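thread: overnight batch results

M.L. [08:02]
morning all. the overnight job finished for the chain we discussed friday. pasting input first so we're all looking at the same thing
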Amino acid sequence: MSDVLDAQSLGQLFTEARSHNGWLAEPLDDAVLMRLYELVRLGPTSANCSPARFTFVRTPEGKARLAPALSKGNLEKTMTAPVTVIAAWDTAFHDQLPALFPHVDARGWFTSSPELAHETAFRNATLQAAYLIVAARALGLDAGPMSGFDRARVDAAFFEGSTWTANLLINLGHGDHAKLRGRLPRLAFEHACQLV
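M.L. [08:03]
and the structure it wrote out:
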């Protein structure tokens, strides 16, 4: 893979893409969500551990379960988004390693160190959530990632009795460009990077 993406593709993924707060009333088909995950799952994670778990909240009943956990500023945009993804991670992700990383017994790396397991799962699940945002953009969707929710309430409403725990929320759909604010500044290379 040596080809550089053209300006239009880079625009769709980064330079023209925006985090959306308003949404058009266009539903997303489940097949689109399945295609999205097929892309996301191919992104690299350490030891192929793939700890992210995604709950696609797309029904009125699901949104009603989610609403009490949202901050006031995130309520309307989440209720009007066609889909809200609860990007979570599995605290028992290492149970899948015999299938995901079969050439060595990596499960013991994490069962012997809860701290390493937590750090690995949280880091890699966050990375996978970022893959989801970029993959959604590649499929012509808009995304609105956010914090601003009560994780314990989300876990109680959606993951009670499981080993999953929420990390962040990502609204998905076709964004209403009329509701976009101006792009906020970003740090320049010299403020955010080092060459050594």
